[in-house]
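Note to self: keep these together.
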Amino acid sequence: MATARLRLFPHPEEEMHADESHEPSAPIRLADLYPLLAQAYRDNYVWLRDFENEEILVTQDLYEVVRAFSYSRPSA
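Structure:
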């Protein structure tokens, strides 16, 4: 299985503003994100802990699935 690689792209200078907020503004597909997060978690990358308290916005249907999954208990 190929290892996913994170690609970073700097903002063009003309789009940068002094009063720019740090609101979420970079869409990413979950299929692109979860292999990277899984690898970072598995290999205990320190940078991942820097974002532990960040909140993410998800669609309502994904929220409901994750919420239901978090309440489910594995069978014995």
